[in-house]
Structure formats: structure tokens, C-alpha cells
Backbone:
């Protein structure tokens, strides 16, 4: 190990001498892109290998007992978590966002390979989730630890994590532009030349990695043939409204199911109940099985019979309204199956399930328009694609990502206008109804969410521990005025004194101004006490609850220059406005430089 450290030290010295910081970031972005691409390819190959093994060699799939498989996958993940990882599974992208805002982009190295085990077990055995989230967190962890190895600063580390995320998306979808836009929208990255070029390099190198290992294989084998017509504008607006309601439903159902599963006391109980629920849903709605790319491709090929597969309603499948009902059922239950998979202990992402749900909803809207009896006709394949974009825009609040993703996977921009119509309508309605997404709501409640608002982002990045001062002489309520002057005022350079009881609780404060007119009256030294002069502070900072946004607001509302900090009910120290503003200015310079 010392020898390895010696080699690393020599390399770092050589790098500082001969490679500028800018060029080194470019080189690292290439490396991060390649690694993110390798992670994505590895994740897909492991998962597809499990799926192939189960389809060809296992009796479950041959006898229509496939709905049992997700339960087995969840059980394997449960055993891995309990006996090997011994740490609860975190949601992929929210954990990365939290590390960027509160941990300086530091991610545990175990997150590099844990998703490569748990995600294939979940998805390969038919869990109704996607692989993109695990690919992003694995690539981000690789990037984070690589940055630490090469002593990269926090701001550049954040950029490289965004590069890894963009690389994962570019590799899976082969859509480098959408990957860059995703990093900007979801990770709240400033789109400057300094950030754009590394993102572009990482995306391209990741796509090349995907082409090298997977060839020209694409997720959606589709080319747009039906061009946009002006008369279809109203229908794409209707689709936008539909995907907005679908997005709101998706998000609300996600949080409702997670809240319901929190009632179970143990992971084992969640596994049993969730596994049974998933099995029942899969029995009645087989397309909920797995990621769902086959379902999307069948809809794009105008083959809804293959998309639906064998269901208990096959005797009525000739009725188009039965087909519409079944497809709408997939729209409704995909969100339930996905969240139940998470709640039961599975690992995965939400982006691909969102695409599946959006494709079903778009196809439903098109079929209703075509068969409602008014002589209208629209392209069902186009509506399937645009429905996917509308739901991505609403669920993730990432409209540009949605537009460029669908435009790139279809190999052109023939649907650009309808994409903009539907996506903008979906985003506007959803954003007004729900301020935060599945990714960001919990982080926003914790005050740990980075946004494109620089002021809020700087406050989020600040740590309250760095601005707490403890160099205040404590007084007790029973202390006389004379003792306070000799033991407090005479020995302190501060004009503020906390008054503490025997249990270390803050009972009041005294300012030097409070005793200025009596401090030289010696007749009061022994007959008056601290309790006579103390008073309540204008406000309190609660260490466990108040983030930097609330701290700044309390200073603004109270007009105070110092506010006491209370931790677990006891006095901890003070935060001064001057130190807070100095720390804010320093963080702002680091954030914007």
C-alpha cells in the first residue's frame, strides 16, 4: 500500500507540473464517461443474462407462473442486504443529490458495486422497476471516489458526478444530448462552457463504449413516418393534459404507497406483503413484469395484442374498448407495481417505468380519438412516443430532457413540435400542482435540495456546524452581579452572555447594554443576581430542525445579531450574523467561480 501511495504521489506531482486543471478535468471526463458506460453495459448484461436463464431454463415461465419470480428476486435482495451489505437500500438519484448538497459529493465506494448486484436481482427476476437509477448511482460513486483519489476539489467533483450521470443515460439510451440536458435539469448544474464541454466529452465516450460492447442495438426500434399535421394540435394538447394528470397520480401514488409500507415494522413483513401484491398484479396484468421495453416496442409496432400478452380477459380482446381498458389499467398499475417493488425492498429506477406508463397512456389517448366515432385519426405510434415525453416532463420536472430523449431515440426531430406542445402543457400543469418531484420532495423538506436559484443553493451547501461559536462565558441565574462582572464581563471579549441552569438548558441571555448603567454601582454587587437582568433571546435556532434557509430567515425576521443554538434541548452556542454572512459570501464565491 505505501508503494502504491508513492506512485500516486509521484503522478499527482507530475500532473501539477505538466497538465493544467482544465485539461485534467477533460481527461477525467473521458475516463468517467468510459467507466459509466461500462457500468451501464455490465448492469444490462447481468440483468439480461438472468432474464434469459429464467425464460429458457426455469419452469416458472413455461407454465405461466412467472408472477412468482419477482418475489424470489426480492427475497434474494433481502438476504443480500441483511447478511452482506448490512445497510438499508437508498433510493438511487435522491441519494446522489443528497451527497452533492450535504456531503460535498462524497459517496461510499460500496455504492459502485452494490447496485450491480441488487438491481439485476430485482429487475432480472421481473421487478417492475428500471436499471437507469442504479446505473447512475454506481457511475456517480465511481466518479466520486476517483475524484477523491486525485484530490479533486468539491466543485469539480460535483461536475464529474454529473458527467457520470450523463454517461449512464447516454449509454443506456444512446442519446448524448438528452444526457447532458438531464444533468443540467436534475442536478441543477450551471450550463457554462466550463461544465458543458466535460459533460459532452463524458456523454460521447459513454455512447462509444455502449456501441463497442452492444453494437447498433437500440431500445426502441422505430422511425417516425407520420409527420405532424396542424389539425392534430388540439389532440396533443389533450395528451399534455392527460400526461399531467398521469404525472400527478404517479407522484402521489408513489408517496402514498411508501407511507403505507412504513407501517410495517420489519423488512421481512414488507417483503411478504409487497411480494404477494406484486404477484397478484402480475397475474392479472402480465406487461407489468420487468422493465417493460418489450411492451413499448410492441405498441410502437402497432401490435397491442403482443404488448398485452396473455391475460384473463383474452376472450374479449377483439373489442377495442377492452384493449383500451387494459392499456389504461397498465397506466394505473405500473406506478403501483413500481412503488411496491421499491417498498418491498427492491432496487431500481423510476425513469423507465415512467416511460412505460407514458407509452400506455399515449396509446390509450390515440385509440380513444381514433375510435370515438367522430372520424378523427391520429398516429398511435406518435402518441405513444409523445406520451412518454409528457410523463417524463411531469414526473421529473425535466421538460427539455423529455423532448431531446424522445427526439434522439427516434433518430430525428420530426416530432419536435408535438413534443413541445405536449411536454410544455404537462410540465406547466404538473409544476403548478406539485412543487417538488419524487426525487426532490424529501430533500426539500430536509433543506438539502440544490436548485438553479444560486441563493438557495449556496444556503443549502452551507453547514451550520461551521458557523456556530462557543466562546461565550456561561452564567447561572443565581450568580450575583459582582460575580458576573468579575467572572464574566472582565474575562470575556464578547458583549453577550448565555444564562444556563444546572441541566445545561438556556434560560435567558444578558447583553452588556443590559447592565451598563448599574455595573459600577457596588452597592448592587451582592444584592442583585443575574436572574434580575436576563431576558429571552429574540429567537432560537434548533439544531435538529433548522436548516440554513430557516436560520437566515430567523435573523431577517428577528433583527438580531446573535441567536442561540439549542441541541437536544440544551445550549450549544451562538450563530452571529456577521459570521453567517462571511461564510455565505465565501461559499458563494466557491459556487460561482
Residues:
Amino acid at each position: 500500500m505505501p508503494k502504491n501511495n508513492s506512485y500516486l504521489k509521484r503522478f499527482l506531482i507530475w500532473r501539477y507540473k505538466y497538465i493544467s486543471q482544465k485539461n485534467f478535468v477533460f481527461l477525467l471526463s473521458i475516463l468517467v464517461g468510459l467507466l459509466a458506460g461500462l457500468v451501464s453495459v455490465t448492469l444490462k448484461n447481468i440483468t439480461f443474462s438472468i432474464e434469459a436463464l429464467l425464460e429458457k431454463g426455469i419452469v416458472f415461465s413455461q407454465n405461466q407462473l412467472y408472477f412468482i419470480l419477482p418475489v424470489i428476486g426480492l427475497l434474494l435482495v433481502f438476504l443480500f442486504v441483511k447478511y452482506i451489505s448490512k445497510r438499508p437500500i437508498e433510493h438511487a438519484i435522491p441519494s446522489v443529490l443528497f451527497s452533492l448538497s450535504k456531503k460535498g459529493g462524497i459517496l461510499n465506494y460500496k455504492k459502485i458495486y452494490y447496485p450491480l448486484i441488487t438491481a439485476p436481482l430485482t429487475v432480472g427476476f421481473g421487478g417492475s422497476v428500471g436499471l437507469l437509477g442504479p446505473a447512475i448511482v454506481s457511475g456517480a460513486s465511481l466518479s466520486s471516489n476517483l475524484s477523491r483519489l486525485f484530490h479533486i476539489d468539491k466543485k469539480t467533483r460535483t461536475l464529474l458526478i454529473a458527467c457520470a450521470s450523463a454517461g449512464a443515460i447516454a449509454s443506456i439510451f444512446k442519446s448524448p444530448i438528452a444526457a447532458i440536458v438531464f444533468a443540467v435539469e436534475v442536478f441543477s448544474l450551471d450550463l457554462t462552457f466550463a461544465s458543458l464541454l466535460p459533460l459532452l466529452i463524458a456523454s460521447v465516450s459513454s455512447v462509444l463504449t455502449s456501441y463497442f460492447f452492444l453494437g447498433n442495438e437500440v431500445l426502441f426500434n422505430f422511425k417516425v413516418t407520420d409527420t405532424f399535421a396542424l389539425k392534430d394540435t388540439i389532440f396533443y394538447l389533450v395528451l399534455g393534459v392527460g400526461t399531467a394528470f398521469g404525472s400527478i397520480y404517479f407522484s402521489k401514488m408513489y408517496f402514498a404507497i411508501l407511507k403505507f409500507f412504513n407501517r410495517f415494522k420489519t423488512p421481512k413483513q414488507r417483503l411478504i406483503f409487497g411480494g404477494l401484491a406484486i404477484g397478484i398484479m402480475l397475474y392479472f396484468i402480465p406487461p407489468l413484469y420487468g422493465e417493460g421495453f418489450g411492451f413499448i416496442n410492441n405498441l410502437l409496432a402497432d401490435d397491442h395484442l403482443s404488448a398485452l400478452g396473455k391475460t384473463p380477459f383474452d376472450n374479449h380482446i377483439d373489442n377495442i374498448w377492452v384493449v383500451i381498458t387494459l392499456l389504461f389499467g397498465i397506466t394505473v398499475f405500473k406506478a403501483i407495481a413500481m412503488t411496491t417493488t421499491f417498498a418491498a425492498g427492491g432496487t431500481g429506477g423510476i425513469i423507465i417505468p415512467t416511460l412505460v406508463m407514458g407509452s400506455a397512456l399515449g396509446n390509450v389517448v390515440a385509440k380513444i380519438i381514433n375510435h370515438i366515432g367522430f372520424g378523427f385519426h391520429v398516429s398511435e405510434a406518435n402518441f405513444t412516443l409523445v406520451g412518454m415525453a409528457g410523463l417524463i416532463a411531469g414526473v421529473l420536472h425535466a421538460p427539455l430532457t423529455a423532448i431531446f430523449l424522445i427526439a434522439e431515440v427516434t433518430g430525428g426531430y420530426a416530432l419536435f413540435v408535438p413534443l413541445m406542445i405536449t411536454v410544455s402543457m404537462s410540465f406547466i400543469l404538473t409544476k403548478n400542482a406539485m412543487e417538488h418531484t419524487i426525487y426532490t420532495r424529501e430533500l426539500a423538506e430536509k433543506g438539502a435540495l440544490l436548485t438553479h436559484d444560486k441563493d438557495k443553493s449556496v444556503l443549502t451547501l452551507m453547514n451550520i456546524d461551521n458557523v456556530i461559536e462557543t466562546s461565550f462565558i456561561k452564567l447561572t441565574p443565581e450568580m450575583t452581579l459582582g460575580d458576573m462582572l468579575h467572572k464574566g464581563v472582565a474575562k470575556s471579549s464578547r458583549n453577550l452572555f448565555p444564562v444556563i441552569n444546572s441541566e445545561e438548558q438556556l434560560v435567558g441571555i444578558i447583553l452588556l447594554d443590559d447592565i451598563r448603567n448599574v455595573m459600577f454601582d457596588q452597592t448592587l454587587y451582592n444584592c442583585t443576581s443575574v436572574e434580575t437582568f436576563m431576558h429571552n433571546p429574540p429567537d432560537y435556532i434548533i439544531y435538529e430542525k433548522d436548516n440554513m434557509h430557516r436560520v437566515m430567515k430567523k435573523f431577517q425576521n428577528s433583527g438580531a445579531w446573535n441567536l442561540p443554538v439549542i441541541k437536544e434541548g440544551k445550549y450549544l452556542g451562538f450563530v452571529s450574523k456577521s459570521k453567517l454572512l462571511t461564510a455565505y459570501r465565501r461559499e458563494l464565491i466557491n459556487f460561482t467561480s
Observations:
- The radius of gyration is 29 Å.
- Residues 59-63 have pLDDT under 50 and may be disordered.
- The longest strand covers residues 570-576.
